[in-house]
Amino acid sequence: MQQSVHDALEDGFIVHRLHDAADKDKLLADVGPSIRGAITNGGIGVRNDVLDRLPKLEMISSFGVGYDGIDIDYCKSRGIKVTYTPNVLNDAMAEITLGLMIALARHLPQADRYTREGKWAGSGPYGLTAELTGKTVGIAGLGRVGKEIAQRCQAFKMQVVYFGRTRQDFVPYPHYGSLVEMARDVDWLVNVMPGGAATSKLFNAEIFDALGPEGFFVNVGRGTTADEAALIEALQQKRIAGAALDVFEKEPSVPEALLKLDNVVLSPHQGSATTKTRWMMGDLVTRNLKAWFDGKPVLTPLT
Ligand code: 8YV
C-alpha cells in the first residue's frame, strides 16, 4: 500500500496490518472483534472467512478499480459499505496499453536487447516489425478505461470496434455482441474486462484461432479472463502473432513457457503503477475511509 495511505491513517485510526503479521490467525483472534474499517486491494481482496472474523466491520475501502477479490454480495448481505478507486487510473491504464501495443508491434524489448548485446554492429540491422497505423483494434470492455484506450488508438490512426454484452448509446465505434466474431475481424484484441466468474477464461482457444496468425492479443484487465494454457499454445504454435500481458492467471507467478517465448511482451501488473496515479488511488482510499467514519457520504461507493 502507498506510504501516503499509511501516513494519512496515522491521524485518527488505530491500524493493524494483517498482511505484515507473522501470526495472522493470532492477530485476527486478538483484534478482529474490534475492527470497524478495512483497506484491501481489489484484486487480492479479502476472503469471506476473514470477514467472518470481523463482526463489527462497517466498511472496506479497496485500492483499485477491479474488485474481483471481494465478495460484494456477501458484503451487501452484512451491510458492509465497500468503496473502490475508479477513474483516477484511466489515463495510466490507457498509456500502458498503448505502450504494450507499440512494444509488441515494434519489438521494443527485443530491439533494446539486440542493441545492448552489440548485435547491431556485428550482425546488421535488427529487422522489420509491424505497425499499428491502419489496423483494427477490438476492445473487450469499453468502460472508462476502454474509452481512454479507444481514443488513443484513434490517435494512432487505428479503427476501433468493441465487444460488450450491450451496445452503448452515443459511442461512435461499431459494436460486437460476440467476442469470437470481433476476434475474427480485428488485428488487435485488447482486453480491459474485469475478473470474476462472468469473465473466467473468456479468451480461449476458439477466440485465439479467430484472431489468427496475424493477430495480437493484449491483456490489461485480469489474468483470469484468459485461458493461459490455451494462450501459450496459440503463441507457441504461432496461431496468433503475439501477446502483450500485464496480468496473469496466478500473479505474481508467470509461467515458464511464457518467459521462453519471443513473441510476447510481459509486464508485472504495472497498469496503474505511476507515482501520480498510485498517489491518487491512495488518496481516494483514505478519503473514502475518513468520509465513512466522519458520517459523511463516501466518494466512490460500490455498495
Ligand atoms: C491494482 C488493479 O489495484 O485497479 C485495479 O483493478 O488491478 C490495479 O490498479 C494494483 O495492482 C494494486 O496493487
TrEMBL record:
Pfam hit, one: 2-Hacid_dh_C
Xref: CDD domains: HPPR (cd12156)
GO molecular function, one term: hydroxypyruvate reductase [NAD(P)H] activity
Keywords (A to Z) from UniProt: NAD, NADP, Oxidoreductase
Residue stretches making up the D-isomer specific 2-hydroxyacid dehydrogenase NAD-binding domain: 98-271
A GO cellular component annotation in the UniProt record: cytosol
Residue ranges annotated for the D-isomer specific 2-hydroxyacid dehydrogenase catalytic domain, each copy included: 5-300
SUPFAM superfamilies: Formate/glycerate dehydrogenase catalytic domain-like, NAD(P)-binding Rossmann-fold domains
Domain of life: Bacteria
Coiled-coil region(s): none
Family: Belongs to the D-isomer specific 2-hydroxyacid dehydrogenase family.
Protein name, as recorded: Hydroxyacid dehydrogenase
Organism whose genome encodes this protein: Acuticoccus sediminis
